[in-house]
Amino acid sequence: MFENLTKKELYAILTGVFTACLIISNVIAGKTFDFFSFALPCGVVIFPVIYIVNDVLTEVYGYERARNVILLGFFDESYSCSLLFNHDCTAGTGIF
């Protein structure tokens, strides 16, 4: 499946997976689930994927490109938080 992808295409896929998992984990972090007798946030389930993708990016593409992906994830997360905050502030007001 991935044998026909170029290194650039795989970088784009890993970047998308990293940023999507980062945003999803922060959105669902407020929800909890019971694991045996412990209540854990749902973001704990997705965090290992983020760690593995970041490790692969660092090993294959180097520190600088991995850092660029992390910064992109930070800015995407900031943007999504601002959208969610804006939605929460304007919900039911008839502004939008």
Quote the distance from N terminus to C terminus: 43 Å
N-to-C SSE series? HEEHH
Largest sheet: 2 strands, antiparallel
Strand content: 5-15%
Q: How many alpha or pi helices?
A: 3
Structural class: mainly alpha
Gyration radius, rounded: 17 Å
As for the number of domains, it is 1
Mean pLDDT: 86
Task: Give the helix proportion (percent range).
Answer: over 70%
Total E-strand runs: 2
The spatial strand order of the largest sheet comes to: 1-2
Summarize the structure.
With 96 residues, the chain is mainly alpha-helical. The chain has 3 helices and 2 strands. A hairpin with a 2-residue loop joins strand 1 and strand 2.
Describe this structure in words.
With 96 residues, the protein is mostly helical. The protein has one domain (7-90). 71% of the residues lie in helices and 8% in strands. The protein has three helices and two strands; from the N terminus they run αββαα. The protein has helices at 7-27, 43-61, 63-90, and strands at residues 32-35, 38-41. It has a two-stranded antiparallel ribbon. Helix 1 (7-27) runs antiparallel to helix 2 (43-61), helix 1 packs parallel to helix 3 (63-90) and helix 2 (43-61) packs antiparallel against helix 3. It is globular and about 45 Å long.
Give me some keywords for this one.
single chain, 3 helices, mainly alpha, 96 residues, globular, 2 strands
